[in-house]
Design a protein that fits this description.
disordered C terminus; FAD/NAD(P)-binding domain; 433 residues; 28% helix; 9-stranded mixed beta sheet; alpha+beta; single chain
């Protein structure tokens, strides 16, 4: 058995995105004095913010009652709002309208209302006149309002989490790509590209798009493949058509909060109004910070099936640039696609004109798929000796679920570390996992 001094840290976290940092934060809060090291391959945690709507704090109303996403989001949204308030991070609780634009949508809308109540969410059913009280420009047969949905400054949240972890005496290392993982009876060791070796009692794999690869580095078969999927977004310019978050009732073929026949609309904390996602195309794995073209991905069966299942308007998505801050006017999608988006959106917002839609950089999300191409919809967390693998996080629920899922992963990692001889430092803060 190794001595405490022979370990570089108690828990090693690979991945400095929202899940990795939330886990590290939970570890330092649960047992102050716990030594945590976070290895992030990008230059900063904010590099992970590849979705324009990444700061959305979902309520989990779309998820099955038995899902981890619903369980975490039911309490996690309020916790994230409180976290933002404590750290002075821009945020607002706008509430969310889910609108039935056609009478055929009404049974599914009613089912969503029932599901929301089962989750314990504050759900209110609205008629057309009541819709106008919350969103004067929105039209629909009926709607439900979930008052707990909000938006936040996603980059601010990541910076605050990293700051809390560092202030607790732990380490967040960026530009540290893990190239090898060695698992031994005493724990794990990970080597980075610069040759640094970090030894720990337990490992948390929260590597997002690379989580399946990291699992294989550790000697585990993940059972899924993680593919980056590119979604198209637009900025809605001109008149202030929405006040908060507005989504249509999901169509039967798109039951979750992802790509829909009618796109959703969201007002960000900076006042920008985003439309999307409105289409999805599987891309290849990111290279040099952005996804390469479609060709390499479409040769992979899982990516092709995901693209087919998630397909929408976006036949011109292949022409969009990779994730990054640049505007997509430089490489706009097919004008016919934008016209189709405007026509679909007018079922929700009659005043929208095609000229009001300005394409922005596409969103990129890590999507785990099973061997048959079926997408994973819920959290997928698996344990192995000395290791917790987080193989899928629902992208649209990441910020709503971050704090409770971080505690859950931390709880599992601490149990594994204790199995390797670690004993929690004296807990004086009153916090627990």
């Amino acid at each position: 058995m190794r001595t405490h001094a022979e370990y570089d840290c108690d828990v090693l976290v690979i991945g400095g995105g929202i899940v990795g940092l939330s886990t590290a934060y939970a570890l330092t809060r649960a047992a102050p004095g716990t030594r945590v090291t976070v290895l992030e391959e990008a230059s900063s945690p904010a590099h992970h913010l590849t979705r324009p709507d990444g700061g959305l704090i979902h309520s989990g109303v779309h998820q099955r009652r038995s899902s981890l996403t619903a369980r975490f989001a039911a309490r996690g949204g309020g916790e994230m709002t409180d976290f933002c308030a404590r750290h002075g991070i821009a945020h607002t609780v706008t509430g969310k309208l889910i609108v039935a634009t056609d009478r055929a949508d009404l049974p599914r809308l009613h089912a969503l209302a029932q599901r929301g109540r089962e989750h314990g969410l504050p759900v209110r059913e609205l008629g057309p006149a009541q819709i106008a009280r919350y969103e004067p420009r929105v039209r629909g047969q009926a709607a439900i309002r979930v008052s707990t949905t909000g938006v936040c400054d996603a980059a601010g949240v990541l910076a605050a989490l990293a700051g809390e972890v560092s202030a607790a005496g732990s380490v967040v290392r960026c530009a540290a790509r893990v190239t090898a993982v060695d698992r031994r009876p005493w724990g794990v060791a990970a080597r980075t590209t610069d040759g640094t070796v970090v030894r720990a009692r337990a490992l948390v794999n929260a590597a997002g798009p690379r989580s399946d690869r990291v699992a294989r580095l550790a000697g585990d078969e993940p059972g899924v493949r993680v593919v980056p999927v590119r979604d198209t977004y637009y900025e809605l310019r001109g008149p202030a058509l929405v006040r908060g978050v507005v989504h249509p009732v999901p169509a039967p073929e798109h039951p979750y909060a992802g790509v829909r026949p009618i796109p959703g609309v969201l007002r960000s904390v900076d006042g920008t109004v985003l439309v999307g996602p409105v289409g999805a195309t599987a891309s290849g794995r990111p290279a040099n910070g952005g996804p390469p073209g479609l060709l390499s991905a479409l040769t992979r069966q899982a990516s092709w099936r995901t693209a087919r299942r998630r397909g929408g308007y976006g036949r011109g998505d292949a022409h969009l640039p990779g994730a990054g801050p640049e505007r997509a006017e430089r490489a706009a999608p097919d004008p016919a696609a934008r016209a189709a988006v405007a026509a679909a959106l007018r079922r929700l917002l009659p005043d929208v004109r095609e000229a009001d839609l300005c394409p922005v950089h596409p969103g990129v999300r890590a999507q785990a798929v099973h061997g048959d191409g079926t997408p994973v919809e819920d959290f997928l967390i698996r344990e192995a000796p000395h290791t917790v693998h987080v193989l899928h996080t629902p992208a649209d629920a990441a910020f709503a679920t971050a704090l409770p899922v971080g505690r859950e992963i931390a709880r599992r990692a601490m149990a594994l570390a204790q199995g390797a001889g670690w004993r929690p430092p004296a807990v004086e803060s009153g916090h627990c996992v």
